[in-house]
């Protein structure tokens, strides 16, 4: 079974550059396609045979296998028949790729105007989510929860389309003859406290370091700050001899003009200017197809474009261009200077397009991410997981089913909060699986990589944070987001929020600060400023959601929040509170109209899963049967696209070396 998984995952990797799009011939074609590509690949089969108690002989045999891989195809687009203008803005890193795709769209017949402004990811989201001026937002980082909230405030629900992978290129002048490779610690010094090059290494010149970096609106700046400075940009921004620019060409010219200059930007700008630039390795690794894909290059990151279903349906030219972009990006991306997204990620983006465009996805979607069957009776060895209290009931249910069907090992699942879970997984290295009600942070990824782990994300469901009061509360039924902020911060009595409510003190029960539930509520309601909430009177925090449930249920003047499963399990003593007139259910959570819906994840690592096949078997079992259990536990299923991507991520992980 593991050999079969290895072959499949190897094919996914090797096909990165081989998969083009559908021909652009007919915009009216409505039948979704599944392109089946047959490829011949060389697979290294490793067999381990014990010779004695202390000697292990490894036999490596190379065989040739022919396999088929299904790639999601989109309806054909004829640029000649597309009318209407398109406006996009955002990341300077994505700009060259978006510009290339726009040029090709126009060269193949599109006569409208495509405006692409290079203003940085943050500024792009500002124009898309606050001003509502653009149709597409280009980004070199994922959209933040606060930006999603801004979008939703103007009636937009941003949809993410992964279009490629970039590596931030740390570069010096081609005339620089002393810098070839640096550690992450040296990189931090170079871009902050070091004044001269000799301050970093004594053998380097006693010359001032000249620094050229992207502006603070740039996703490139954000990502570099996350990885190198753990989200504390002040040392970098306080450095001497610093020039910032949103225009990467300005940075290129500055770096190329002096042997003592250094800077960073998207890989495409390095590739385009290799005559005057030299790339710098990090921890002995330079970016290439392999190191970017396997995560060994520390500054690799995904590239995205975002739009909205309503925009795509009201402006068919936008839907047509995104279709064209996804169908043909693999033909262009390497030449532009970036790295292809994996087949799984691109398939996921195409499936998101079908959803946004209101069309049926390919019928063969399920087979694309079908996992081999697992027999729990044959699985041995223990499994240790920890993390989110929200994910805990779901993980516990899946573990019980795994054991009920024959698994005789021990699964330990600790409910300690998402942050504490990542601490144990990424710093202490004590767990095999980390459960989370938020995505892993870049700083936590860096912690993982520091101990040789590359966390792999598996989306397992969707939760809605349930704002709840006691069933005895007869006055609170619905609140606005502004009222919610007051309730959990400055308001002392209920009457401070609405005069007709009782003049009684508000009793607040909230998750601890290590909880992903706390983080997400803080993002949406307080825009990542938790101090007002933590300073509120009559406040009790707990990592145990059952403590919160009992506290809220015990008083008509209490209020709190936790994962929806805890509300559902305790409806006899709790009442849910609507937000802006919307309560969480299957429809409002899926379409994003409920303000506090959020994804649920489990994380592991390819090496762990290969060394501990019981971990891989349990994650396989989890992803195979989670939708049978999730509604009964009290959560909502992940979309087919998200679950399909998780399953394919598992196949890829099991084939990693």
Quick take:
Strands 3, 4, 5, 6, 8, 9, 10, 11 and 13 form a nine-stranded mixed sheet that branches. Strands 14, 15, 16, 17, 19, 20, 21, 22 and 24 form a nine-stranded mixed sheet that branches. A two-stranded antiparallel ribbon has the order 1-2. The two termini are 16 Å apart.
Describe what you observe in this structure:
With 657 residues, the protein is of the alpha/beta class. The strands form 5 sheets. Strands 3, 4, 5, 6, 8, 9, 10, 11 and 13 form a 9-stranded mixed sheet that branches. Strands 14, 15, 16, 17, 19, 20, 21, 22 and 24 form a 9-stranded mixed sheet that branches. A two-stranded antiparallel ribbon has the order 1-2. Helix 2 links the parallel strand 3 and strand 4. It is globular.
List the helices and strands and how they pair.
Elements: H1 2-14, E1 33-50, E2 56-73, E3 86-90, H2 95-107, E4 114-118, H3 121-131, E5 136-139, H4 145-153, E6 158-173, E7 181-182, H5 184-190, E8 210-214, H6 219-229, H7 234-237, E9 242-245, H8 248-256, E10 261-266, H9 267-272, E11 277-279, E12 281-282, H10 289-294, E13 300-308, H11 309-314, H12 316-336, H13 343-357, H14 365-368, E14 383-387, H15 392-404, E15 411-415, H16 418-428, E16 433-436, H17 442-450, E17 455-470, E18 478-479, H18 481-487, E19 507-511, H19 516-526, H20 531-534, E20 539-542, H21 545-553, E21 558-563, H22 564-569, E22 574-576, E23 578-579, H23 586-591, E24 597-605, H24 606-611, H25 613-633, H26 640-654
Parallel strand pairs: 3-4, 3-5, 7-12, 8-9, 8-10, 14-15, 14-16, 18-23, 19-20, 19-21
Antiparallel strand pairs: 1-2, 5-13, 6-10, 6-11, 6-13, 16-24, 17-21, 17-22, 17-24
Helix pairs in contact: 1-26, 2-12, 3-4, 6-17, 12-13, 13-26, 15-25, 16-17, 25-26
């Amino acid at each position: 079974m593991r050999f079969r998984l290895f072959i499949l995952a190897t094919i996914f990797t090797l096909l990165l550059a081989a998969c083009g799009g559908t021909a652009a011939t007919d915009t009216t074609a409505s039948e979704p396609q599944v392109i089946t590509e047959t490829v011949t690949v060389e697979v290294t089969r490793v067999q381990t045979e014990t010779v004695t108690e202390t000697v292990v002989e490894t036999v490596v045999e190379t065989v040739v296998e022919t396999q088929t891989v299904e790639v999601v195809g989109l309806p054909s687009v004829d640029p000649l028949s597309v009318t209407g203008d398109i406006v996009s803005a955002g990341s300077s890193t994505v700009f060259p790729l978006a510009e290339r795709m726009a040029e090709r769209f126009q060269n193949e017949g599109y006569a409208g105007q495509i405006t692409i402004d290079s203003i940085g990811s943050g500024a792009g989201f500002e124009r898309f989510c606050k001003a509502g001026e653009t149709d597409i937002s280009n980004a070199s980082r994922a959209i933040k929860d606060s930006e999603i909230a801004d979008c939703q405030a103007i009636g937009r629900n941003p949809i993410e389309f992964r279009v490629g992978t970039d590596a931030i290129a740390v570069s010096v002048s081609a005339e620089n003859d002393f810098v070839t490779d640096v550690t992450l610690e040296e990189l931090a010094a170079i871009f902050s406290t070091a004044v001269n090059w000799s301050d970093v290494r004594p053998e380097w010149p006693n010359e001032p370091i000249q620094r050229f970096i992207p502006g603070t609106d740039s996703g490139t700046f954000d990502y570099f700050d996350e990885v190198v400075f753990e989200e504390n940009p002040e040392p970098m921004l306080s450095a001497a001899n610093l020039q910032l620019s949103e225009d990467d060409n300005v940075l290129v010219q500055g770096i190329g003009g002096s042997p003592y200059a250094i800077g960073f930007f998207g890989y495409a700008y390095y590739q385009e200017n290799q005559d005057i630039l030299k790339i710098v390795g990090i921890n002995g690794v330079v970016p290439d197809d392999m190191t970017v894909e396997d995560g060994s290059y520390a500054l690799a990151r995904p590239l995205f474009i975002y739009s909205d279903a309503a925009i795509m349906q009201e402006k068919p030219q936008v839907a047509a261009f995104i279709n064209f972009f996804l169908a043909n990006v693999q033909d262009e991306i390497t030449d532009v200077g970036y790295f292809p997204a994996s087949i799984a990620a691109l398939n996921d983006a195409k499936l998101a397009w079908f959803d946004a465009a209101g069309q049926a996805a390919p019928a063969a979607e399920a087979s694309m991410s079908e996992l081999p069957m697992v027999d729990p009776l044959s699985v041995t060895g223990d499994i240790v997981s920890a993390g989110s209290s929200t994910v805990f009931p779901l993980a516990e249910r899946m573990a019980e089913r795994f054991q009920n069907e024959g698994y005789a090992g021990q699964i330990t699942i600790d409910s300690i909060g998402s942050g504490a879970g990542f601490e144990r997984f990424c710093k202490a290295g004590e767990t095999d699986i980390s459960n989370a009600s938020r995505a892993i942070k870049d700083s936590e990824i860096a912690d993982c990589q520091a101990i040789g782990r590359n966390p792999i994300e598996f989306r397992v469901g969707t939760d809605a944070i349930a704002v709840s009061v006691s069933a005895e509360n007869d006055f609170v039924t619905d609140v606005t987001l502004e009222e919610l902020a007051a309730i959990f911060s400055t308001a002392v009595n209920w009457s401070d929020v609405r005069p007709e409510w009782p003049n009684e003190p508000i009793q607040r029960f909230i998750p601890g600060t290590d909880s992903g539930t706390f983080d997400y509520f803080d993002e949406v309601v307080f825009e990542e400023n938790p101090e007002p909430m933590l300073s509120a009177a009559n406040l009790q925090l707990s990592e145990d959601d059952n403590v919160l449930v009992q506290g809220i249920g015990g008083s008509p003047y209490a209020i709190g929040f936790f994962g929806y499963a805890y509300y559902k399990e305790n409806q006899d003593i709790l009442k849910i509170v609507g937000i802006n007139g919307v309560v969480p259910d299957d429809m409002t959570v899926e379409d994003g109209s409920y303000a506090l819906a959020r994804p649920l994840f489990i994380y592991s690592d390819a090496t762990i899963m290969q060394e501990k096949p019981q971990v891989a078997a349990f994650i396989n079992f989890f992803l195979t049967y989670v939708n049978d259990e999730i509604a009964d536990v009290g959560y909502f299923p992940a979309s087919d696209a998200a679950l399909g991507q998780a399953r394919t991520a598992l196949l890829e992980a099991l084939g990693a070396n």
